[in-house]
Amino acid sequence: MPFPGGLWWLLCCRQGFTLLRRDYGEADREADGEAEEEASFELRAQGDQGSLEVSLSQPTRTSSGSERSLLVSEEMRSLIVEKGPGPVEDDPEALVKGWLQREVRGGVKTPWIRPRKYWFVLTPDSLDYYSSNERGAKRLGSLVLTSLCSVLWPDKQTYKETGYWSVTVFGRKHCYRLYTERLNEAVHWVCAVQKVIDSKAPVQTPTQLLMRDVEEHGGSPEALEQIYRCNPILRYTGSPLYAPLLPFPYGSPDQRAPGARSYTTLRDEAVKLFNSLQQLESERDPAPLIQGILQTCLDLPPLVDEVYCQLVKQTTEPPAPGGQGDLRYWQLLTCMSCTFLPSAPVLRFLRSHLDRTESRCPASEMAKYAGFIRAALGKTKGRECVPSLDEILVLTRRQEMVCTVHCPGAAACRVAISSHTTAAEVARELVSRLGLSQSPNLFALYEQSRLREQPVGSATLLADVLTRFENLAGEEREQDPPCRLCFKHYGFLDTENVPRDSLEFALLFEQAHEMVLRGQVPTSEETLQTLAALRLQSLNSDFSTHVPFPRLEELFPAGALRARLRAPRPAAPPARRPGARLRAGLLAGGLWGQALAKQRAERDQRLRGRLREEGAAVMAGILEKWKLLQGMGRPEAMAAYVALVREWPGFGSTLFDVELHVSPLGAAQRLWLGVGAKAVSLYKPGEPEPLDSFCYGRISSFGASDSSTFRLSVEDRDLLFETSQVEEIAQLLSTYLATLGARRPPQTEEPAGSRGPAGSPAPDPAAEPWPCRPPPGAFLS
After folding, report:
1. Largest CA distance in the chain
2. Is pLDDT at 626 greater than 80 in this prediction?
3. Contact by Cβ (8 Å): 274, 314
4. Closest CA to 780 of 748, 757, 754
5. Separation between Cα atoms, residue 428 and residue 447, nearest integer Å
6. What whole-number distance in Å separates Cα of residue 127 and Cα of residue 160?
7. Count of CB atoms within 10 A of residue 235's CB?
8. Less Cβ crowding at N or C end of the chain, within 10 Å?
9. Residue 183: its pLDDT value, please?
10. How far is CA 400 from CA 294, 395, 412, 733, in A?
11. What is the average per-residue pLDDT within 193-212?
């Protein structure tokens, strides 16, 4: 139904007045906002002279609810320079001036509303804009520039969308978005504004001033108590915060973690965190909320000091000391101390708070938490992940965690760890506990699942590894089940002299079996069946139909079973006539597509049937060989298994899947890179003999060219390998080189360019490449 003519006229008039108000009413509101900007400036320049009577209360809102202020001295007002009646062309204080377009409501994204141009003047104290460049022109707005202001460079995306280059200046309460059609003009304004910001002295909040006073009067208990009594901002409050305790840049849109959830400005996030802290007092299960606060601090590192200051504030003279709400703050402070290390001024302020708490309440729960926190701060060096929920529950009780480490061929070990325990420390403890201190071989912890396995770095915190396990379990990946920690060989320096009745030989046997199942022992199918029979003999002793029988994939490599199904390559299809592809595309969604799907299903069913037949044939051969092992004991079966695997020359080396680039334009060749105790070898997958082998005396250097390229320099040539295990290869090579260097006499002269990895001397080519035994519990370097 069409609108009456009168209604159309009313709507058009209303829209017209709205547009006029956008163009001309915006400036009036901004001019009024200038007074608000000047009146609410609450920070103090670091270099200001004069005494400041520090007596600050909690930040409060005004009666209108739109303004936040702190009680400060009148000398703060002197930072705001009074402006004259209008711009002067020869004003000596004007650094940059010119016409720019100011974004109005609707902005340049609305083509039918053209942005208005204003005359902008940049001075050493502010960025002002006027209605024109004539004398006596009205000043429409001013943005006071301090060290906390920030400016964004023009981006190409805005230019593509609007046709203008943007300059964004963030102030405390206002944000100026300016536009120009010329890129060089935008860059000139950005550089000039940034230079003014950099020239400003750092500003300090009242909390920072009081922190300095607390540090200066730490030796006088009377003066310290006077500071806390006269300044409520240092004490507990049940009211919300309306401003952060520490200074943060205005705007700061780039303070975000890649891949993390979206955050607002640092100032807003600091206020939100204080609200979350207050929720802890009444939360039934505080662990998830504590973990969320820690995750925000991990994503936004500048907020770590702010949270520490907020927690010190909330644990200072609470209404119910030792109550549930007070202890929740102490528990979060305990988790923070085991995860993040604050800056030096905040750390001194925190330690002063801990001392004050222990002296005022010596036998209380708060004093026990204070002692635990002080000890944790001496060990914390930073975390890759926030504590897991289990770790948070343990930390709230000031206890240690229990970590389960699986050992192939032995029972799982339970190790007590803290938030600061590294993988190297656990590896050394297991080496001592399992009686492996006299072994010449290297051991390490591994993150292990059914589909992947990788060593844990020596300096990696096990608490971070357990957090990753918790995150993987929460994602419920069916194709990659949750990981576990496993203790096993990391490098083989001597596999010949391992006693057969020792635990290390059981570990060696299990690791050899893992290599066989992964297809990393090139041998004949007959030998693989013999190995499977020996495995059954070691597990179940003599053949019997009543013993538990493992699955075929736990005895025989799946790759060798699929190799039996490989058929000869089919002949090339006949050439298609013109229009065949079009007709196939037209029929793909109809009956012809259904027929193709049916054919694929039938082909997959036939393949599965053949796979079952081949698997049954292989199992029958394994059982026949198992019957021939009647009377062989478990130690003999294990020794025979290891002896068969040791016949491959590459046994004892750690194999990595790599792609070698023979030439820049040539195709990559898929190979195995075997890193052993004596040499580095290249194997073609499935081939028993190496393509090439390089002893450590021939290797001049190695390292990572990038995140997926490993470079190996051998004499006068460089080999580049594409792999996802660059770091693991470099660590293992460094470990072997360190072991080789342990038995060599010190070099009297070191030629140029012969440095090894991480600044260690390169191996002597004339020295015999035979490693000596590393220190007990040697681990990743």
Report:
1. 111
2. yes
3. no
4. 757
5. 17
6. 27
7. 15
8. N
9. 93
10. 19, 7, 19, 35
11. 93
Closest by CA position to 97, among listed 40, 62, 69, 137: 137
pLDDT tens per residue across span 224-273? 999 999 999 999 999 999 999 999 998 864 444 444 467 888 999 999 99
CA 323 to chain CA centroid, nearest Å: 36
pLDDT, average across residues 500-509: 91
Q: How many residues does the chain have?
A: 781
pLDDT of 776: 34
Tell me how far CA of residue 306 lies from CA of 254, 367, 687, in angstroms: 18, 23, 60
pTM of the complete model: 0.75
What tokens were used for 566?
């490989």
3-state SS, residue 763: coil
User: How deeply is 257 buried, as exposed, middle or buried, from its count of CB atoms within 10 A (0-12, 13-18, 19+)?
Assistant: middle
Rounded-to-integer distance, Cα 271 and Cα 307, Å? 10
Dihedral pair phi/psi, residue 334, rounded to 5°:
-65, -45
Whether 261 and 298 have beta carbons less than 8 Å apart is answered as no
List the structure tokens of 625: 């060989």
Closest CA relative to residue 189, chosen from 198, 180, 201, 199: 180
Residue 719 has pLDDT above 70, yes or no: yes
Sheet harboring 717-722: ordered strands across?
Answer: 692-695, 679-683, 668-675, 654-661, 717-722, 709-714, 699-706
Per-residue pLDDT for 416 more than 80?
yes
Pair 179, 101: CB distance under 8 Å:
yes
Average pLDDT value for residue range 111-117: 65
With beta carbons less than 8 A apart as the criterion, state whether 472 and 397 touch: no
Nearest Cα to Cα of residue 721 among 772, 655, 632: 655
Strands 654-661 and 717-722: antiparallel
Name the pLDDT band for 443 (thresholds 50, 70, 90): very high
Helical H segments across 300-388, by residue range: 303-314, 324-337, 344-360, 365-377
Q: What is the mean pLDDT of the chain?
A: 79
C-alpha 689, offset from chain centre: 41
For residue 203, the surrounding DSSP H or E stretch is strand 203-204
- Rounded to whole angstroms, the Cα distance separating 425 from 417 reads 9
Beta bridge partners of 152: 168
Res 505: pLDDT: 92
DSSP for 66-103, written as a single string? S-EE----GGGGGGSPPP-SS--TT-TT-SEEEEEEEP
Kindly state the average pLDDT of the residues 43-53. 40
Structure tokens at 296: 């925000």
Give the pair of three-digit tokens for residue 723: 């792999």
Q: Compute CA distances 473 → 93, 261, 289, 406, 765, whole Å.
A: 63, 20, 19, 18, 49
- Is residue 450 classed as helix, strand or coil in its secondary structure? coil
Mean pLDDT for 279-299 is 94
Reported as a single tens digit per residue, the pLDDT across 518-556 is: 888 999 999 999 999 999 999 998 988 888 888 888 899
Give the pLDDT of residue 581.
54
pLDDT at residue 41 greater than cutoff 70 = no
What DSSP string runs through 267-321? HHHHHHHHHHHHHGGG-SSHHHHHHHHHHHHHHSTTHHHHHHHHHHHHTSS-SST
- DSSP H helices, 397-475, are 423-433, 462-475
**pLDDT tens-digit map of 565-586:** 764 444 445 555 555 554 555 4
DSSP string, 209-248: HHHHHHHHTTT-HHHHHHHHHH-GGGS--SSPPSS-SS--
| Inter-CA distances, 301 with 254, 256, 272, 342, Å | 13, 10, 15, 10
* DSSP conformation letters of 637-667: HHHHHHHHHHTSTTTTSEEEEEEEESSSSSP
